[in-house]
Amino acid sequence: MAIIALISSFFISLAGVICGHIALKQIERTGESGRGLALAGLIIGYVGLAIGAIVVLFYVILIIGLASSSSY
User: Fold this and answer.
1) What are the DUF4190 domain coordinates in residue numbering (predicted)?
2) pLDDT tens digits, residue range 26-58?
3) Does residue 64 carry a pLDDT above 60?
């Protein structure tokens, strides 16, 4: 699960975050290895989500700015 979290966080950040949390719970419960991979998947996933939110916010501000300037 930790490997899936790491790989999917590069493509679909939300899937990486979800799988990372599941992997950490599983590692805590069973004592398996892979904690570093799960944490890396979580970190990359959260960074990807934050960058995505910033990009969406930028586009919304850009669209609002263009819409308000075209009304003159």
Assistant:
1) 2-54
2) 999 999 999 999 999 999 999 999 999 999 999
3) yes
Other C-beta atoms closer than 10 Å to the C-beta of 62 total: 10
d(CA 70, CA 28): 56
* Residue 17 · residue 50 · CB < 8 Å: no
Global pTM reads: 0.84
As a whole number of angstroms, the longest Cα–Cα distance in the chain is: 64
Closest C-alpha among 47, 41, 11, 8 to residue 26: 41
Helix, strand, coil distribution of the chain in percent, nearest 5: 90, 0, 10
How many Cβ atoms are within 10 Å of 14's Cβ, its own excluded? Answer: 14
